[in-house]
Amino acid sequence: MFTLRQAKVLAEIISKHIKTAEPVSSKLLAKSRVFKVSSATLRNEMNGLEELGYLVQLHTSGGRVPTDKAYRFYVDNLVAQSCFDIADGAKKRIRSAIANGGNDPKEINKTIAKTISDLSDHLIFSNIFESGDCFKVGLSSLMEFPEFREFDRMFQLTSFFDHFETLFDRMEKDFFGRQDFAPNVFIGRENPMGGMKDEAVITVKYSLPRQHLGSMTLVGPTRMDYEKNIGLVKYAADELNRIFST
Protein backbone atom coordinates (compact mmCIF):
# COMPACT_ATOMS: atom_id res chain seq x y z
CA MET A 1 0.00 0.00 0.00
CA PHE A 2 1.20 3.54 -0.57
CA THR A 3 1.35 6.68 1.55
CA LEU A 4 -1.09 9.57 1.67
CA ARG A 5 1.35 11.75 -0.26
CA GLN A 6 1.70 9.09 -2.95
CA ALA A 7 -2.10 8.98 -3.22
CA LYS A 8 -2.15 12.75 -3.71
CA VAL A 9 0.65 12.54 -6.27
CA LEU A 10 -1.23 9.83 -8.16
CA ALA A 11 -4.47 11.83 -8.12
CA GLU A 12 -2.69 14.92 -9.45
CA ILE A 13 -0.96 12.94 -12.21
CA ILE A 14 -4.27 11.39 -13.28
CA SER A 15 -5.99 14.77 -13.24
CA LYS A 16 -3.29 16.35 -15.42
CA HIS A 17 -3.12 13.40 -17.80
CA ILE A 18 -6.90 13.40 -18.28
CA LYS A 19 -6.74 17.06 -19.31
CA THR A 20 -3.66 16.93 -21.54
CA ALA A 21 -3.16 13.31 -22.71
CA GLU A 22 0.56 13.95 -22.10
CA PRO A 23 2.97 12.16 -19.73
CA VAL A 24 3.42 13.97 -16.42
CA SER A 25 6.90 14.70 -15.05
CA SER A 26 8.04 15.48 -11.52
CA LYS A 27 9.09 18.95 -12.73
CA LEU A 28 5.56 19.63 -13.96
CA LEU A 29 4.13 18.53 -10.61
CA ALA A 30 6.57 20.78 -8.75
CA LYS A 31 5.58 23.77 -10.90
CA SER A 32 1.91 23.24 -10.10
CA ARG A 33 2.55 24.32 -6.49
CA VAL A 34 0.18 21.64 -5.21
CA PHE A 35 3.07 20.06 -3.32
CA LYS A 36 5.49 21.91 -1.08
CA VAL A 37 8.36 19.52 -1.80
CA SER A 38 11.15 19.40 -4.38
CA SER A 39 11.01 17.87 -7.82
CA ALA A 40 13.47 15.19 -6.63
CA THR A 41 11.14 14.18 -3.78
CA LEU A 42 8.22 13.96 -6.18
CA ARG A 43 10.34 11.87 -8.55
CA ASN A 44 11.03 9.42 -5.73
CA GLU A 45 7.32 9.16 -4.96
CA MET A 46 6.61 8.53 -8.64
CA ASN A 47 9.28 5.82 -8.73
CA GLY A 48 7.52 4.13 -5.83
CA LEU A 49 4.16 4.34 -7.61
CA GLU A 50 5.74 2.86 -10.73
CA GLU A 51 7.11 -0.08 -8.73
CA LEU A 52 3.62 -0.66 -7.34
CA GLY A 53 2.15 -0.77 -10.85
CA TYR A 54 0.24 2.53 -10.78
CA LEU A 55 2.43 4.44 -13.24
CA VAL A 56 4.39 3.57 -16.34
CA GLN A 57 7.15 5.48 -18.13
CA LEU A 58 6.66 5.26 -21.89
CA HIS A 59 10.04 6.82 -22.71
CA THR A 60 13.15 6.94 -20.54
CA SER A 61 13.43 10.71 -20.89
CA GLY A 62 9.74 11.47 -20.45
CA GLY A 63 7.20 11.63 -17.68
CA ARG A 64 4.80 8.94 -16.56
CA VAL A 65 1.22 8.01 -17.35
CA PRO A 66 -1.36 6.18 -15.20
CA THR A 67 -2.02 2.47 -15.68
CA ASP A 68 -5.43 0.76 -15.61
CA LYS A 69 -4.68 -0.08 -11.97
CA ALA A 70 -4.24 3.63 -11.25
CA TYR A 71 -7.54 4.55 -12.87
CA ARG A 72 -9.29 1.81 -10.87
CA PHE A 73 -7.89 3.27 -7.65
CA TYR A 74 -8.94 6.74 -8.80
CA VAL A 75 -12.52 5.68 -9.52
CA ASP A 76 -12.94 3.56 -6.38
CA ASN A 77 -11.31 5.89 -3.87
CA LEU A 78 -11.50 9.44 -5.22
CA VAL A 79 -14.28 9.70 -7.78
CA ALA A 80 -16.52 7.49 -5.62
CA GLN A 81 -16.50 10.22 -2.96
CA SER A 82 -18.09 12.65 -5.42
CA CYS A 83 -21.80 13.46 -5.35
CA PHE A 84 -21.68 13.22 -9.18
CA ASP A 85 -23.54 16.49 -9.55
CA ILE A 86 -23.59 17.86 -13.10
CA ALA A 87 -24.19 21.34 -14.48
CA ASP A 88 -27.74 22.68 -14.46
CA GLY A 89 -27.60 23.11 -18.23
CA ALA A 90 -26.76 19.43 -18.67
CA LYS A 91 -29.63 18.44 -16.38
CA LYS A 92 -32.03 20.55 -18.41
CA ARG A 93 -30.90 18.99 -21.69
CA ILE A 94 -31.31 15.47 -20.29
CA ARG A 95 -34.80 16.20 -18.98
CA SER A 96 -35.76 17.74 -22.34
CA ALA A 97 -34.46 14.69 -24.20
CA ILE A 98 -36.62 12.41 -22.07
CA ALA A 99 -39.67 14.64 -22.54
CA ASN A 100 -39.13 14.83 -26.31
CA GLY A 101 -39.25 11.05 -26.50
CA GLY A 102 -42.85 11.05 -25.32
CA ASN A 103 -44.04 7.60 -24.30
CA ASP A 104 -42.08 5.75 -26.98
CA PRO A 105 -39.26 3.61 -25.48
CA LYS A 106 -37.31 3.52 -28.74
CA GLU A 107 -37.47 7.29 -29.25
CA ILE A 108 -36.48 8.00 -25.65
CA ASN A 109 -33.51 5.64 -25.92
CA LYS A 110 -32.41 7.41 -29.10
CA THR A 111 -32.78 10.98 -27.81
CA ILE A 112 -31.12 10.27 -24.48
CA ALA A 113 -28.19 8.54 -26.21
CA LYS A 114 -27.68 11.52 -28.54
CA THR A 115 -27.82 13.93 -25.62
CA ILE A 116 -25.32 12.05 -23.44
CA SER A 117 -22.99 11.64 -26.43
CA ASP A 118 -23.16 15.39 -27.14
CA LEU A 119 -22.51 16.26 -23.49
CA SER A 120 -19.64 13.81 -23.04
CA ASP A 121 -18.12 13.72 -26.55
CA HIS A 122 -18.02 9.94 -26.17
CA LEU A 123 -19.48 6.94 -27.95
CA ILE A 124 -22.88 5.82 -26.64
CA PHE A 125 -24.79 2.58 -27.20
CA SER A 126 -28.37 2.37 -25.97
CA ASN A 127 -30.50 -0.75 -26.03
CA ILE A 128 -33.97 -1.98 -25.18
CA PHE A 129 -34.02 -5.42 -23.60
CA GLU A 130 -35.99 -8.21 -25.27
CA SER A 131 -36.92 -6.10 -28.31
CA GLY A 132 -33.37 -6.09 -29.65
CA ASP A 133 -33.50 -2.39 -30.55
CA CYS A 134 -30.01 -0.85 -30.49
CA PHE A 135 -28.90 2.71 -31.14
CA LYS A 136 -25.33 3.97 -31.38
CA VAL A 137 -23.96 7.48 -31.72
CA GLY A 138 -20.74 9.42 -31.18
CA LEU A 139 -18.06 7.47 -33.02
CA SER A 140 -16.85 10.59 -34.87
CA SER A 141 -16.50 12.49 -31.58
CA LEU A 142 -14.43 9.70 -30.09
CA MET A 143 -12.08 9.76 -33.06
CA GLU A 144 -11.03 13.27 -32.03
CA PHE A 145 -9.21 11.83 -29.00
CA PRO A 146 -5.46 11.31 -29.60
CA GLU A 147 -5.72 7.70 -28.39
CA PHE A 148 -7.74 6.78 -31.48
CA ARG A 149 -5.45 8.32 -34.09
CA GLU A 150 -3.52 5.06 -34.30
CA PHE A 151 -4.89 2.82 -37.03
CA ASP A 152 -5.04 -0.34 -34.89
CA ARG A 153 -7.05 1.35 -32.15
CA MET A 154 -9.38 2.96 -34.66
CA PHE A 155 -9.91 -0.33 -36.52
CA GLN A 156 -10.59 -2.18 -33.26
CA LEU A 157 -13.18 0.37 -32.20
CA THR A 158 -14.96 0.61 -35.54
CA SER A 159 -15.12 -3.19 -35.76
CA PHE A 160 -16.76 -3.31 -32.34
CA PHE A 161 -19.10 -0.51 -33.39
CA ASP A 162 -20.18 -2.41 -36.51
CA HIS A 163 -20.85 -5.68 -34.67
CA PHE A 164 -22.33 -4.35 -31.46
CA GLU A 165 -25.82 -5.77 -32.02
CA THR A 166 -24.44 -9.31 -32.18
CA LEU A 167 -22.25 -8.78 -29.12
CA PHE A 168 -25.13 -7.29 -27.17
CA ASP A 169 -27.20 -10.47 -27.45
CA ARG A 170 -24.56 -12.25 -25.40
CA MET A 171 -24.00 -9.31 -23.06
CA GLU A 172 -27.71 -9.06 -22.30
CA LYS A 173 -27.67 -12.59 -20.92
CA ASP A 174 -24.21 -12.75 -19.37
CA PHE A 175 -23.79 -9.22 -18.04
CA PHE A 176 -26.75 -6.85 -18.02
CA GLY A 177 -29.03 -9.48 -16.53
CA ARG A 178 -26.94 -9.42 -13.35
CA GLN A 179 -26.47 -5.62 -13.22
CA ASP A 180 -28.49 -3.45 -10.85
CA PHE A 181 -29.56 0.13 -11.59
CA ALA A 182 -26.32 1.77 -10.41
CA PRO A 183 -23.63 2.74 -12.94
CA ASN A 184 -20.78 0.27 -13.38
CA VAL A 185 -17.29 1.24 -14.55
CA PHE A 186 -14.96 -1.15 -16.36
CA ILE A 187 -11.40 -0.09 -17.11
CA GLY A 188 -9.18 -1.69 -19.71
CA ARG A 189 -9.06 -5.47 -19.38
CA GLU A 190 -11.91 -5.47 -16.85
CA ASN A 191 -14.20 -4.76 -19.80
CA PRO A 192 -16.80 -7.52 -20.35
CA MET A 193 -17.03 -6.58 -24.03
CA GLY A 194 -14.70 -8.47 -26.32
CA GLY A 195 -12.35 -6.32 -28.36
CA MET A 196 -12.49 -3.34 -25.98
CA LYS A 197 -9.55 -4.06 -23.70
CA ASP A 198 -7.89 -0.66 -24.17
CA GLU A 199 -10.95 1.45 -23.40
CA ALA A 200 -13.05 2.36 -20.38
CA VAL A 201 -16.77 1.65 -20.30
CA ILE A 202 -19.56 2.99 -18.10
CA THR A 203 -22.82 1.03 -18.16
CA VAL A 204 -26.19 1.59 -16.56
CA LYS A 205 -29.62 -0.03 -16.72
CA TYR A 206 -32.88 1.94 -16.40
CA SER A 207 -36.66 1.90 -16.74
CA LEU A 208 -38.51 2.93 -19.91
CA PRO A 209 -42.22 3.41 -20.74
CA ARG A 210 -44.55 0.40 -21.08
CA GLN A 211 -42.53 -1.58 -18.52
CA HIS A 212 -39.51 -1.88 -20.80
CA LEU A 213 -35.93 -1.89 -19.54
CA GLY A 214 -33.09 -0.17 -21.33
CA SER A 215 -29.35 0.17 -20.96
CA MET A 216 -26.74 2.74 -21.87
CA THR A 217 -23.06 2.06 -22.50
CA LEU A 218 -20.58 4.95 -22.65
CA VAL A 219 -17.24 4.10 -24.29
CA GLY A 220 -14.09 6.20 -24.20
CA PRO A 221 -10.36 6.13 -23.52
CA THR A 222 -9.20 5.08 -20.07
CA ARG A 223 -8.08 8.72 -19.85
CA MET A 224 -11.67 9.90 -19.56
CA ASP A 225 -13.24 12.36 -17.13
CA TYR A 226 -14.81 9.67 -14.94
CA GLU A 227 -16.52 12.05 -12.53
CA LYS A 228 -18.27 13.96 -15.31
CA ASN A 229 -19.23 10.91 -17.37
CA ILE A 230 -20.49 8.86 -14.43
CA GLY A 231 -22.50 11.92 -13.38
CA LEU A 232 -24.12 12.26 -16.81
CA VAL A 233 -25.02 8.58 -17.09
CA LYS A 234 -26.25 8.42 -13.49
CA TYR A 235 -28.45 11.50 -13.79
CA ALA A 236 -30.05 10.23 -17.00
CA ALA A 237 -30.76 6.82 -15.48
CA ASP A 238 -32.08 8.31 -12.23
CA GLU A 239 -34.48 10.56 -14.15
CA LEU A 240 -35.72 7.67 -16.30
CA ASN A 241 -36.22 5.47 -13.24
CA ARG A 242 -38.02 8.26 -11.39
CA ILE A 243 -40.45 8.78 -14.27
CA PHE A 244 -41.01 5.26 -15.57
CA SER A 245 -40.30 2.76 -12.79
CA THR A 246 -43.39 0.87 -11.65
Automatic annotation (TrEMBL):
MF annotations from Gene Ontology: DNA binding
Keyword rRNA-binding belongs to the record: no
Family to which this protein belongs: Belongs to the HrcA family.
Top-level taxonomy: Bacteria, Candidatus Yanofskyibacteriota
Transmembrane annotation, as ranges: none
Domain of life: Bacteria
Claim: Transcription regulation is one of the keywords in the record: yes
Gene source species: Candidatus Yanofskybacteria bacterium RIFCSPHIGHO2_01_FULL_44_22
Name of this chain's protein: Heat-inducible transcription repressor HrcA
